[in-house]
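Handoff note, outgoing to incoming analyst
You'll be picking up this chain. Sequence as last confirmed:
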Amino acid sequence: MAIHEDENVELVKIGDLNSYSRRVYTIVKVVSKTEPREVSSRIDGSSHRVAEALVGDDTGSIYLTLWDDAIDDVEEGQVLNIKNGYVNLFRGSMRLNLGRFGSYERAEESPFEEVNLDNNLSSRQFEQRRDYGRGGFGGRDRRYGGRSRRRY
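Most recent structure output, in case you need it:
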């Protein structure tokens, strides 16, 4: 495994990612990009643009979620150095995200020759992780400050 120069962390290969991957440092090549679409924030209702770029390395590929200005900045054929990304599930398929603490830089050259499109991690379906904030355990029963579920 290669070491990322700036952060002194190991670079991970796309084929080694899983749906719980955090602190992802990797180098990928942009294969394609979808057309942007408008979405509204659930928090404040503000409007944002979102698109997905198919990125990968010699071990696999995955969709990278791009927001607002990053959509125009990232182009097909570019090599990106991803810093502190994470993987989540969107509608049951894996997506690589940058979030608030992640970033990317353009790299001069690719450390691999071809992108492995046969191992597309986003094309596999996974069971969605349980949202603990809504029902179930999530602090709803009496031991955690919730109401008693018994009816007398």
